[in-house]
């Protein structure tokens, strides 16, 4: 989906995005990132360190939340900045369904670019797992297409 920049207004909701995170996703992400910490694949280790079970990599959760914005704007290269705080883990069960990550966002601000050209939209992102927010202060700034 590519957004129509002429129709973007503060308060607009981005189309919601629900994604499933499975243990297979964690294995693939570990291979790509080199993060083989056993809290991301071993229940026993995760529980020993005080977690409720195996958790998704924080950066994977962040990347998946970013997909909400890139899908909306239509161009990953349009993202000017993106930041989050990790507030809760996404616990990924050892089953075929995985964990449901529910992503929503809204346009919080619109401004002209400092360098001219495209307008900049600040997007507030909400990421929930099991009904609770897992990312705090999740915001992205994107250049709207001309």
TrEMBL record:
InterPro entries referenced in this protein's UniProt entry, alphabetically: Fatty_acid_synthase, HotDog_dom_sf, MaoC-like_dom
Gene3D superfamilies: Hotdog Thioesterase
Residues spanning the signal sequence: none
Pfam families: MaoC_dehydratas (PF01575)
MaoC-like domain sequence ranges: 17-95
CDD domains per UniProt: SAV4209_like
Family from the record: Belongs to the enoyl-CoA hydratase/isomerase family.
Protein name: MaoC family dehydratase
Source organism of the structure: Pseudonocardia acidicola
């Amino acid at each position: 989906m590519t957004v129509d920049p002429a129709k973007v207004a503060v308060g607009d909701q981005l189309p919601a995005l629900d994604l499933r995170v499975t243990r297979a996703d964690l294995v693939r992400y570990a291979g790509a990132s080199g993060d083989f910490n056993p809290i991301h694949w071993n229940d026993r280790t995760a529980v020993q360190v005080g977690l409720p079970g195996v958790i998704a990599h924080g950066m994977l959760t962040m990347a998946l939340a970013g997909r909400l914005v890139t899908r909306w704007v239509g161009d990953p290269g349009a993202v000017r900045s993106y930041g989050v705080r990790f507030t809760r883990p996404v616990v990924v069960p050892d089953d075929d369904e995985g964990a449901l990550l529910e992503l929503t966002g809204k346009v919080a601000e619109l401004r002209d670019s400092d360098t001219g050209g495209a307008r900049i939209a600040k997007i507030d992102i909400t990421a929930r797992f099991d009904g609770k927010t897992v990312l705090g202060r999740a915001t992205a700034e994107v250049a709207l297409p001309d």
